[in-house]
Design a protein that fits this description.
The protein has 278 residues and is α/β, with parallel strands linked by helices. It contains 10 helices and 9 strands. It binds adenosine monophosphate.
Length: 278
């Protein structure tokens, strides 16, 4: 496994990597969810292909009041996890390497990015799209793997690839959870002991609501009620949305997702499950 920290060295190293090249973009602080993605990339790349992992805490996707400065940074531990999961190339650039101080071009998306997480995180998905486009240009992967935990991100990246003709296949991986149902997230480390004990209530509420409701919109109403009862929880949104348009929906003949964002103190957790519950 090779670590590169500059765009020029990433390009040089990539030329030598046999296709299919499969990229797993991350912000580091790797947990079992990320590891599952890297392992799936390894399986899909096969013995001949190669697995690229980017580790970059992208300042462009954090708002001014968000957790960019305190986001966990642990490159040495992350490199060990990447190695044992089967990665071949790690690209871990600095912010200065990725963003020229004179930059003036970025990728905008609308309307998908104005809803759900985008409504409370203006500019977030423009930052995500811009960095993913840059990673695609630098690392020229044949495929890239994203987690279903960030469903809106997955949908927007699929649109970006289709709309801007990136020759990259977008793959997804189901959400990896703790035994008590809490979706793994690097931000779970921010939770106090009592918040951590309450947080699995989000997933439990989504599951119960999806199982007991006739439509995605009705499930969202029930899930909101249940989440509001969780000690310390403050709802950002709970919505039943079409799985590809992300519009609120009462339709049951198309794939839908029941999605929530919930604050515990300053920590914002997101989760989503399929509707109807599989
Ligand atoms: P992040 O480091 O949070 O930007 O996440 C990097 C990738 O890992 C994204 O595609 C996420 O959707 C994915 N991911 C994060 N948490 C999980 C999880 N619990 N299960 C599956 N994928 C995840």
């Amino acid at each position: 496994m090779k670590l590169v920290r500059t765009i020029a060295s990433a390009r040089r190293a990539t030329v030598a990597l046999a296709p299919p090249r499969i990229l797993v973009p991350t912000m580091g602080a790797l947990h079992r969810g990320h590891v599952a993605l890297i392992e799936q990339a390894r399986r899909r790349a096969g013995a001949k292909g190669t697995v690229q992992v980017s580790i970059f805490i992208n300042p462009a996707q954090f708002g001014p009041a968000e957790d960019f400065t305190r986001y966990p940074r642990m490159l040495a531990t992350d490199l060990r996890a990447c190695r044992s999961a089967g990665a071949d190339l790690i690209f871990a650039p600095s912010a200065e390497e990725m963003y020229d101080i004179h930059r003036s071009v970025s990728i905008a998306e609308s309307p998908l990015s104005t809803r759900l997480c985008g409504a409370s995180r203006p500019g977030h998905f423009a930052g995500v799209c811009t960095v993913v486009a840059k990673l695609f240009n630098i690392l020229t992967p044949d495929a890239a793997l994203f987690g279903e935990k960030d469903w809106q991100q997955l949908v927007i990246i699929r649109r970006m690839v289709a709309d801007l003709d990136f020759p990259v296949k977008v793959l997804s991986h189901p959400t990896i959870r703790e035994a008590d149902g809490l979706a793994l997230s690097s931000r779970n480390a921010y939770l106090t002991a009592s918040e951590r004990a309450a947080a699995p209530g989000i997933c439990a509420a989504l599951k119960k609501a999806a199982a007991e409701s006739p439509t995605p919109a009705a499930a969202a109403r029930l899930a909101r009620k249940l989440i509001q009862r969780i000690p310390g929880a403050r709802v950002d949104y709970v919505e039943g949305v079409d799985a590809s348009t992300l519009a609120s929906t009462i339709r049951t003949d198309r794939p839908a997702r029941l999605a929530a964002a919930v604050y515990f103190g300053d920590t914002r957790l997101i989760d989503n499950i399929p509707f109807p519950k599989k």
